[in-house]
Amino acid sequence: VESNRILYSPDEHPDHTVVIKYVPAVGDSKRAMDEYVSEIFMGGVNTIALHNTCEDSLLASPLIIDLVVLAELMTRISYKTEGVCDYAPFHSELSILSFLMKAPLVPEGTPIVNALFRQRAALENVLRACVGLPPENHMLLEHKAIPRPVKAK
């Protein structure tokens, strides 16, 4: 993780450690032990510990199918943005699929979005645009303010 220059500059370090060890005796079955610690009310600490055993390749198969289907779909889409005359296809790096990847690849000069929710929202909004729906922004501003009557002129 520390060597990922997309996430960390040379003087930065992660606040956690990930250790992956190969154990021949378990074959394709992988065992994960995750511990999540969070602060709760009045300075308390909450710890959630998970132990998971599953076949690695079976976890990856649906993801690979989704990648193939979405990548093929993206080849059928062309779009244009404000101020551009011609429709164009997505860049071949398909950063729109970063939601399904560990480290997103983007064309040079493109901002890197390394937030799972934002990556998913981007993918969902592209698919919404394909069927003529407006993008979701999740702000729900229409429900945040106290409505005031419009003054008559």
SSE diagram, text form:
Elements: E1 29-40, E2 44-55, H1 56-74, E3 78-79, E4 88-89, H2 116-130
Antiparallel strand pairs: 1-2, 3-4
Task: Provide structural commentary.
With 153 residues, the protein is an alpha+beta fold. Helices cover 22% and strands 18% of the residues. The chain is built from 2 helices and 4 strands. The strands form 2 sheets. A two-stranded antiparallel ribbon has the order 1-2. It is extended and about 75 Å long.
Comma- or semicolon-separated keywords:
two-stranded antiparallel sheet; 153 residues; alpha+beta
Order of helices and strands: EEHEEH
Radius of gyration: 22 Å
Strand content: 15-25%
Structural class: alpha+beta
Total number of strands: 4
Largest sheet entry: 2 strands, antiparallel
Give the assembly state of these chains.
single chain
Helix content: 10-25%
Q: Given the structure, what is the number of helices?
A: 2
Question: Are there runs of 5+ residues with pLDDT below 50, and where?
Answer: none
